[in-house]
Design goal:
The complex is a heterodimer of chains A (about 375) and B (about 475). With about 375 residues, chain A is of the alpha+beta class. Chain A folds into three domains: about 170 residues, Uridine Diphospho-n-acetylenolpyruvylglucosamine Reductase, domain 3 (2-Layer Sandwich), CATH 3.30.465; about 90 residues, Alpha-Beta Plaits, CATH 3.30.70; about 80 residues, Alpha-Beta Plaits (2-Layer Sandwich), CATH 3.30.70. Chain A has 13 helices and 17 strands. In chain A, a hairpin with a 4-residue loop joins strand 15 and strand 16. Chain B has 19 helices and 18 strands. Chain B starts with 7 loop residues before the first helix and ends with a helix. Classes of the chains: A alpha+beta (about 375), B alpha+beta (about 475). The interface between A and B is large, with 86 and 101 residues.
Chain lengths: ~375, ~475
Amino acid sequence: MQPRTEAELAEAVRGAAGPLRICGGGTRGIGRVVPGELLSLAGISGISLYEPGALTLVAAAGTPLEEIEAALAAEGQMLAFEPMDHRVLLGSFGVPTIGGVVAANVSGPRRVSAVGACRDALLGVRFVDGSGQVIKNGGRVMKNVTGYDLSKLMAGAYGTLGVLSEVALKVLPRPEAETVLTIAGLDAGQAVKAMAAALGSPYEVTGAAYDPARGVHMRVEGLRASVQYRARELAALLAGFGTVALEEDRGASAALWQQIRDVERLAPHQVVVRVSMKPSDLPVILQDVGAGDDYLADWGGGLLWIAASETDGPALLENLQQFCARSGGHATLVKAPEAMRRSLRSFQPEPAALAALTAGLRARFDPRGILNPGLME
Amino acid sequence: MEMPVPNPGVLARKARIVALLRKVLPEDAVIDDPTATRAYECDGLTAYRCPPLAAVLPRTTEEVAAVLKICHAEGVPVVPRGSGTSLAGGALPTADSVILGVARLRDVLETDYDNRFIRVQTGRTNLSVTGAVEADGFFYAPDPSSQLACAIAGNIAMNSGGAHCLKYGVTTNNLLGVTMVLMDGTVVKIGGAHMDAGGLDLLGVICGSEGQLGVVTEATLRILPMPEGARPVLIGFDSNEVAGACVSDIIKAGILPVAIEFMDRPCIRATEAFAKAGYPDCEALLIVEVEGADAEIDTQLALIREIALRHDPVEFRESKSAEESAKIWLGRKSAFGAMGQINDYMCLDGTIPVSELPYVLRRIGEMSKDYGLDVANVFHAGDGNMHPLILFDANKPGDLELCEAFGADILKLCVEVGGCLTGEHGVGIEKRDLMHAQFSTADLEAQMRVKDVFDPSWLLNPAKVFPLDASATRRAA
């Protein structure tokens, strides 16, 4: 099914005889493989409002991300949460859509800064619940506490509470300049300390990642003179960790952070797990659970991407989820062969009291259990 | 303001309920004497008052759980209360309710600079969270103007903002985790020191739910390194339109100030008479503050100056020192106090798309003439959050009602132009019955479903947020 309007979408959901597989561009095959008829949002597309002076953009859920990014670039603006393009890691095809980005709460390296995650930029949504009812929440303004914030609830729900039809987002000016600082030759423990020192400084670091082969990368962005000043100060602050190399070319910096954002390094691997945790737990988890076949850390150490073979994948996922159950955080199977995605629990199991709340919300927003059923289990 | 009829069964069982509460709490933590419960009869919205059945002041999460378990079993409504500074009546009791105050939950539980968070009990005041980390160069970003008094619990309930949220976001963007007690006494932990939710974003819907989903007893909050410095400029214009266009141009130029504050002529005159900050007598005034090291500030202010001069300002005053900065902020910070000196006033809190600013100000001016009540406008221009202050005379019969009707019309106007009823104060009882103006029945139903899950018996703060007609069957069930 490929409805062309929100009304047709509502009709399609209302009239559905069985489960629906909701699909934006189909580039993010994450979670349990769900049965059901394909419901594509590709037909509900287009930017309906863009006010650069108000930093706001409203678009239909099926709008290609590329179209949005082009419109923003034309005004010198951007989606500051820099969503990952999952095609690189997953080897998937298709056209990423803004609805898919929001449904999966896809947030890139700037998550670690005051910019926050995709959900932090989300101002409002329109969606169709499991009964085919059209519901709106939030709006298009930056400060809004009118009623419950269902928009956040929809971000990262992978369509299981409702099918997004429209999203309103806060956008930000594209920085005039950016510089990367790199310190090579650090182990994970030193890397986390170096990133903590940078992120705890007043120099507004907007990216802090660790690649065990290349070292620690940190990014500063903004007005040119300010970037130069902050990069210099940071380099001095971090001198104790090793030689600090500066890359001031904007294109080179952008390319590097795109590789980090898209977890390009792990693309050759069959199984990749994403772990969100307390940054200082990075060396601990690598010690406890092992470093897999390869890994990459972002968000100052708070986001770990870890790879394994098909054979070792299930045990790695299990160990990571157990670590998170003990120490906080969560581990999600992001890349795996389809058979594995059918048999394993992709998302971190929740304690009973939270699982009951989650189940209660699903039962009320999707009483027939037809929206991507079981995807997040 | 219509409130539900108190449950006569609960009122009749007061002695039993208080005795049960005394069994699980220390003697001084249960207040049932009618003269003492008076202290809890209202919050910052003082026009509405109602003493509760009793008030309890637990000291631990376990005590909160014990209280809620009793109230749940006895069918007693519970109204959670932070510091009682809500301007929307979020903590207004009903006669059959127990006030659950978190004022004695005040400890800092954990401070972690490497991971940039602080874990606190939620009765702690907003400003004292920053106070706990500022010596080490950190701060907690949300800064509601009541920050000296307001509690983190209330900040989470109302998703409080402040003047600096253009850059740093509001409470929901700075909240990493909570320990929360559900109405049946179940203790849940959501989130933690990690940066995103696993599973559904329950934290996102709890924040801003006005104490209707659970009582948050502990919070993990993101702290940020303090900027090296900050400095404001003051820019005066002879029209609101031009001031609005200047705000838009500053934002489009790629500068992200931490605050852009706007005051109109009535507000400038009133504050000038009161605080003598030396503001120019003009139609509209902007205060724009930027952060960074001295040289960074200079660069940003030079850009702002260039943009402002294109709009032909009547005044452009750049702060060169801490004293000058304080003087620029003085009038803005005393705006509410100044208004209070000359009149009773009602402070509104709608948000509008920034582009609609000139139209909305013109319409408010017209409505002001129709109602015969003066309005002064002060607001956060960067994010469109307006605080029109309607002046009225509380001693004049009918004036409060007239003022409320005028306020409702302004908020409906905010919704009409694509904005919302409340930007940072919350719905409470104040805007409860206006919710139909912004939401369809289906929209409200969807929100109430969330409450059905967390609090199936609708005992937590039940008469708030949703129009009474919309929630009637649920509250009666």
